[in-house]
Design brief:
Main location: membrane
Number of helices: 12
Keywords: Hydrolase, Membrane, Protease, Transit peptide, Transmembrane, Transmembrane helix
Shape: globular
Number of strands: 5
Strand order of the largest sheet: 3-4-5
Structural class: mainly alpha
Order of helices and strands: HHHEEHHEHHHHHHHEE
Radius of gyration: 23 Å
Subcellular location: Membrane
Cofactor: Zn(2+)
Protein name: Site-2 protease family protein
Helix content: 40-55%
Largest sheet: 3 strands, antiparallel
Strand content: 5-15%
Amino acid sequence: MSDHKSNKQLYIQISLFILTIITTTISGAEWISGKSLLFGEETVGWTEFMTGFTFSIPFLLILTVHEFGHYFTAQYHKVKVTLPYYIPLWLGFIGSPSIGTMGAFIKIKERVDSRKKYFDIGIAGPLAGFVVAFFVIWYGFATLPSLDYIYQIHPEYEQWGENYAEHAYDEGSLVFVLGPNLLFSFFENYVVSDPKLIPHAYEMIHYPYLFAGYLALFFTALNLLPIGQLDGGHILYGLIGPTKHRLFSKVFFLIFVYYAGLGIASPYQLSNWMMDEALYVGFLYLSLHHFSSEKRERLMYALGIFAAQLVTVYFFPLAEGYTGWLLFSFILGRVMGIYHPPVLIDTPLNLKRKVLGWMALVVFVLCFSPKPFDIVETQSKEDKSATPTIRSETNPSPY
């Protein structure tokens, strides 16, 4: 019976992996070509599908190395753990762009009894995945194609040559853009041989190695948030112990929620103010479900976050967070929890592990982007140097 159950689980995992290869390859083909599989005059064909592997293979390689970093470290510590479960997700059938997956996860099937084991299992995935992502991004920037590559996707750009970005976007157009991070800035400045080949921020999605690497950095930073049972939570718990971790996890979570919703509530916009803000405070209250068991305390913190955001916007009217983080803060605060489970063996880490822990913090800083994915409204052609205007839009289309 046990072998039958184990085989069934393995079949499910293999099937999910194969489906994820297909969905990420389709998504890669759509992003690279600027076409849809189902909609539009020109749709994704077999040629574009095969090109999609230049996105799906490096992306899934990084994701797989990350998960097996966790897996093999758990095996080393004799902690029972499953092989990775991949989560395929393609939204092209509703005309919405997606990356073909929601990631992957492994299931730890028994209690982890020591601080050291939690630390080792938590840190192995992000560091292993980051190493592969580093070389994928390096390769992407070191082998940037000529401008003919972008002309094949957007033939109209050829008339403007290397200055296409100054002419190609009409004022008021909505464009999907990847936010900056320190690692990309490093490669752009010190690895690229010809700066003219660096794609405009609006066109980065067409470059599969860069896009795959960017997504890997995004997921790495997400996992390294020092909250709860995320990889970063395990690492911080190992570094500073249970008492300090509980306090730090609270503080980091409050800062995270505060930044995510910054700009939603404004004292300068009073239309439907009471209803909208009441709903927003209610959302904050729900997001604090695992923050405190006391309803009154949760309401107090929700109102406190709301007030802090209002005050910030009052003194700095252009202050704006990233609403995309609100969903993740809800998942953390309502579903996953923000506190770390206790362990039986609470022995402090040795110096080697502490150094690795602070290295993981450096990796987080290199990978993190305050606004990783945005819809921006392009400026007038006379004002291209200005910062793009951020629009509150959902379901960005790359097509």
